[in-house]
Amino acid sequence: MKSLIVASAIIVLLTGCFAGPPLVEITQGGSTVTSGQVLSLEAALAAPDVPDNFTFQWLVDDALVSGASSADFLYTAPVVSQVTSVKIKVTALAAGRGSTEAEITVSVLPSRVTHLSQSGSFTYAVDLGINPLSVYFIFSNGSETEASRPLVSPNFSVSRQLPPPQSSGVLPPVGAPLPAAFRGSPFVSEFNRNPPRLETFSADLRRSIEFPAPDVPLYDTEGEGGTLYDRSIAVASTCRKVVEADGKRLNIWVADADWGVAAGKVTQTMVDALATRFMKAGAGNDIYDWVRGIFGAEWGSHDYSNLIQPDNEVTILLYDISGDGPPVSGEGRIVGLFDAINNFTKASQSLSNERLMFFVDAPLFADDTDENGSWSITEDFWPNEVIATLAHEFQHMIHFYQKAVRNSLGISSEIWLNEMCSMAAEDLVSNKIQADGPRGVSYSDGTAGAPGNTSDRLARYNYYNDSSLTYWPPIDAPPVETLTHYSLSYSFGAYLARNYNGPELFKAIVQNTGIDYRAVTSALSAMGYGVKFTGLLQRWGASVLVSDMTDAADYYNYNSGDFLSFSHDGITYQAGSINLYNYYFNASGEQQSGPKLYSSSPVGASTLAPASNTFYYAGGGLTGTKSWTITIPASVGTTVVFR
Hints:
five-stranded mixed beta sheet, 27 strands
C-alpha cells in the first residue's frame, strides 16, 4: 500500500560565532503527502566544524515517535477521510551544546484508493487513523476465464451489516420502469460482427477496372416510390426527403403503410425534423458530423469485390420493423438498426439494398407518447429515443467499415465492445442532439441528477455489477439478458469517456486493429496510458464506489459535479456527471439502491466471472490499525477503497 515520496525536507543545524545551542533551519521543498504514503525527511549537519555527536528525536503532533532517533525519518501518513495538517518536529541534542528544535507543517491529502499487488494468501494491514472510515475491497478478475471466489477474514470483530447507500432522498415508488429501447437485433448484431467473407480483387482485375462515378439511385428523388428490403421483408416505400449537404447526401424513405396524417402515422413535418437532426448544411452541427467526428468515416475506398463502392450517400428507411404496430405501455421495442448486409453487392448477398442504410421504427417515431395532441421530437419518449438511436446506429455503421473493411480484418469487434462504442456515441453527443441518452439524466443537466433514478442502463448495472463485461448473450437469449450486458458495456464506456479524453480514446478504439478488450488497452497505450486490462477494471471499480464524490483523483472520476468537456478535431464534446448511488433498480421483485455489495466470505457468486469486478464491504466505523487475511487467485487484482 505504501509508496515512497521523497520530499526535500532538510533540517540543517547551523553553527556560527555565537554562544548557545545551534539553530535548526528546515527547508521544505514539498509540504504535502497523500495519505497511506511515506514522506522521507532528513536531519543533516550543514557545517563541517560541527562535531558529529548530535542525536535526534522526531515528534508528530507533539507525540514522540519511538525509535526515531537518527538523522533519517520516514513519516507514514495515516489513511484519512479529509485533509489533515500534522506538525512534524525534530529536536537535536549534543553533549555540552544543549538542544534545539524545528517544526514543519505537512498537509495530508486523502487517498481513497489503494491497489494491492499480492495474490495467493496474504494479510493486508492498514492504519486508518482516528477518523472512522468504511473499507471496501474490489476483486477484479482480468482473465478471460472464471476465477475462484476470494476468501476474506477480518482479524477483528466487524459488523456484517451493509452500509446505507450514499445518496439521500426518498426512493421512488415501486412501479413499471420506462420501456426498454432496443437498438438492433441479436441476429443482425452477430452478422455485423462476423460477416460473409470479404473477397479481394485480384491484382490483374484491379488494374483492368476503372470504377465509374456512382449513379444516383433510381428512386432517390423526393416523391418517387419503390421497394426496399429488410432482409426478406419487402417494404413498399416512397422517398420523402433528400438532403444534400457538404458533399454528402441523405435519403429518407417511409413505408407507404406508415405514411399519413392519422395518429401513429409519419408526416412530412416528422421527416423534416429527422432530416435536420441527422444531416444539414454546415460543419459540426448534426449527428452525421458529430459522430463521424469522433469515430471516423462510415465508408470509403476498399479492395473488396463483393462490397458496394462509396457514393457519399446514407439512407434511412422508416417502417414498422417488427410488425407490432404502435407502442404498448411498458413494452420494449426495437427502435432502429444498422444491418451490414446492405453494404454487400446484390450479387454477393441477394437480400442487400446495396446502400449504406439504417432502419427506424416508424410507429415509434410517430408516437405522441405524452398524448397531449402535439408530437415533439424532443419531448415525446419514443421520438427522442429515435434521435439517440441514430447516433448509436451510425457508430455501428462506422465501426463495420473501420474494423472489417478499412483495417482488412474481415471481422468486426466483439459485440460488447461495439455496443460500448455506440452507447459512448449517444453519451458524448447527448446535449448536442437534445436526447437524454443512456445516462438517464436530462441532456441539459451536467450534474449527476437526483436520487431514485430508475433509468435502466445504470440502475441495472448496479444490480448486475459483478457480471462479465466482455460476455454477450447468444442470439436465443432472453431480451432481459441482453439489457443487462448493455448496462455493463455502458458503465465501462462511460467511465472510459470521462477519464481518458473520451472522443480521442474512442476514435483510437474504433480505428485500431483490436476487436476485443485489447482494442481498449492498445488505444490507451497509444495515448500514453500504460494500464493493463486488470488495472483498468480496478480503476473502473474504484470509480463506482467514489462516484458520489466530485473531487475524486485522476482516473477515478465519474462525477465532477457538472459537464466534463473534451475538445477533439475542432468540436467540443461534453459528458455529464454520474453518481451510481443515485440509481435505483426495481424489476421482477429485485431491488437495488446504489452499487451491489457483498458482505460475507467467500465473496460473490459461485465464481468470479471473466472480466468482472466484485464489490465487498469490509467494515464501517473503523479506526486505528486493522488487518484482513485475504486469499485470491493470481488472475485477480485487489483494490481497497476508503470512505
